[in-house]
Amino acid sequence: MRIGDLARETGVSRRLLRYYEEQGLLRPRRLANGYREYGDTDVAAVRHIRTMLAAGLPTAVIARLLACVHDDGDRMVPSACPGMVSSLQRERRRLAETIDRLQTSQQALDTMLATVLEQRS
DNA sequence: ATTCTTACA
DNA sequence: TGTAAGAA
């Protein structure tokens, strides 16, 4: 199928599908005319990409983990491949740090907000 | 009609 | 990520 078909079947824009390819997430074959040719398995692949993106994983990590998951028909099933667990754990820690920074920012804003509201009253 | 690449008010 | 432009 070509990019338009995949876009329709996945709900992901053609622009984004090309971006996924740039990031090494999809490797469609090329037709003689230069058009991208996707396989049927790419439909599930895109769903997996969306799932991992939603989990906060960076595309570089997703590119590697994509080969470690298979499709159970409707959901992504992570299989224990080498590096899978450590990668996920490392990303979890990375997210925890991001959350900490955001909480610090929120605390700073709360302080400023409390101050300005106090002066107002 | 579709897709491709490149570039950015 | 969208959209526009110019080409195939």
From TrEMBL:
Transmembrane segments: none annotated. This is MerR family transcriptional regulator. It comes from the Bacteria. Keywords: DNA-binding, Repressor, Transcription, Transcription regulation. It holds the Pfam family MerR_1. It comes from [Actinomadura] parvosata subsp. kistnae. GO terms for molecular function: DNA binding; DNA-binding transcription factor activity. Residues 1-68 form the HTH merR-type domain.
